[in-house]
Amino acid sequence: MEKLTFYALSAPEKLDRIGAYLSERLSRDVARPRYGYVCIAMEALDQLLMACHCQSINLFVESFLTMVRKLLEADKPNLQILGTNSFVKFANIEEDTASYHRSYDFFVSRFSEMCHSSYEDPDIRTKIRMAGIRGLQGVVRKTVNDELQANIWDPQHMDKIVPSLLFNLQQEEGIERSPSPETEKESPVELTERCFRELLGRAAYDNIKNAVKPVLMHLDNHSLWESKTFSVRCFKIIMYSIQSQHSHLVIQQLLGHLDANSKNSARVRAGIVEVISEAAVIEASGSIGPTVLEVFNTLLKQLRLSVDYELTGSYDSFANLGSKVIKVHEERQLQEAVIKTIGSFANTLPTYQRSEVMLFIIGKIPVPGMYPSLGVEGSRMIQIMLLKSLLQVTAGFQSTNILTALPTSFLDPLLSFTLMEDAEIRLLVLDILISIIDRHDNRHKFSPVRIISDISVLKLKVDKCSRQDNLFMKKHSQRLYRHIYLACKEESSVQRHFESLYTLLGLICVELANEEVVVDLIRLALALQDLALTEEALPVYNRCAIHALSAAYLNLISQLTTVPTFCQHVHEVIESRKKLVPFLLPEDVLVEKVLFVQAKIAEMLGGSGYNTERLATSYIPQITGLTLSLSFKYTETGCPVIFLPFLIQCVIMRHINVNVEELERERRRQVVERFQTAPFEEIAAHCGARVSPMLYCLSHVIDTCSISLSLSLSLLDRPPPSPSGSVGNGHGRTRSVPVYEMKFPDLCVY
């Protein structure tokens, strides 16, 4: 071997003839078979290849690759592994001269095939697969930086290389490894991951798409989105391996793939969304790229589609026999995953871009009547989902300038939703306002609502109000106070609403209050106290909760102002309440322990054999309508008499009529006031959103009564007898009294 190497170096022009001779010998030995001579020939070729780097090496390489191909085409695993090892050594050599005509297509195909080996012996199968992985790694190294070679990033090659690597990456539990020292050093999965990372790390901007697309196809073809674990692992490898400035390209491909699977099952879409969420966390801050709003638009579109699917029960516009069955709980899981992903994206954005996203989402929330096709329930679900998304975006949002964080174009439509009848929507809006205003992480210090004798234990972070804060309060404070006041008037408010209102008021006092604002806040607290005293229509719990909220807030604000006499007065009132009316303090009202929990009762009854399905639905008194049983009796004169049921109904209608007039006058006054003072968004939120059960009942009664009167008048339409009591003589009738001149009892007339 030393003499042969010396001869080749001395006469490099002979290399091609040496290679041709060795190739001929190796072909003959493989066919015979004489595997010992095959190994000797390959060893000679390897050493010559490592030693010679002259310009004539290209002709020798052709002979070398021909011999490697023969070994890879052999049926014997040992020959395949031998050929692979020789190729890997060749791949690590940096050639001095370029090759214009060399092709590696065969090696890509053959190494990919070896990666999927199904040889019976598990140890040999593992060795063949590992050889295939190393071969693909060698092909990538040899061609990726050689501009004269066929582009390894072409889809025809990537569609073979990437699935082969993913197949082996997926076989972590399926492959049994032998205890030999060779396989103990590195498992097939570890080798595959290292090769996959190397491939992705070499990908340039133009090649990312071709490298990622086969991953998406592989996960589709093998239904791997639903399990989530493997798909998340794959994209974590991708995101950590590629250059950081290319991360947004991967995100865009995932979003496009999510759109392409819009009509697939909810579990598949949820798996893709989960991958997007994990990828967004890894992605560098602010590198989503130039299409930030496009990302959120795609996610919000998926949210809207999921709600549509849940409501219609079909992935198509018109349900048909071939359509897939919609599983509501899976759609709900998908919706939660999309909302979580929106939050993950938002956390990667700088403050100014997050503000744009907030404006974008608030503009997508439908007001009542905007989308008639959705219906009332559809609009409500969309509103809740988008508000939850907005809450995710605002989580952790800290802006030094509150004017830019809450511009009028964002604040007005947001506040309009605090007046919605739906309690969940109002609570979400309060949480969003709290997230934006809380710039020093004080929100959790106001929970639970309680009377604190010394607020220094809360360790509140209080900074002096900036000029922007003062401008914001001067511009928007009255609107904030008004909506807080009106939110307290809502009958459907529960404990969490009052806790959020207290937190919001506390944050305004800590974050945005100057002397003028403090005075206005005290006025608001006293107005809430008057509201609880005068608004008799409110439930008892709500009135007590408002008293407790007012007391706790005045206690907080009195200690923040550090005016001794003010603090003393508040303290005296609170002590009096503790002795006389403890139910007007938060410790007795805004607590969960004094209330019966529906979920716990259902669990206890269910354990004893009761059917608790109906218990999960809250009881609502049903309007059954008034059934009329009209009884008629003719007097001696033939005049029908309407008996008690109809008379009672007429009496009810007379009393209701008075109340309706009073309600109508009050309603008109409120409508005029609202249209004169309220912003447009609030007016839009009210229009068509509320249908009073009382008005429904009155309408039903009036309609029923109209039917009864029509029936009665039809019976009265026959010619009545003469008031004198005379009847006809058989040939004709005497003059009858017209209906409109007859005298009825007052109770029969409406």
UniProtKB/TrEMBL annotation:
State the Gene3D superfamilies in the record.
Leucine-rich Repeat Variant (1.25.10.10)
User: Which InterPro entries does the record associate with it?
Assistant: ARM-like, ARM-type_fold, EFR3-like_ARM, EFR3_Homologs
Gene Ontology biological process:
protein localization to plasma membrane
Q: Which Pfam families match?
A: EFR3_ARM
What are the GO cellular component annotations? Answer: plasma membrane
Record's family? Answer: Belongs to the EFR3 family.
Protein name from the UniProt record: EFR3 homolog Ba (S. cerevisiae)
Q: Which organism is it from?
A: Cyprinus carpio (Common carp)
Its taxonomic path starts at: Eukaryota, Metazoa, Chordata, Craniata, Vertebrata
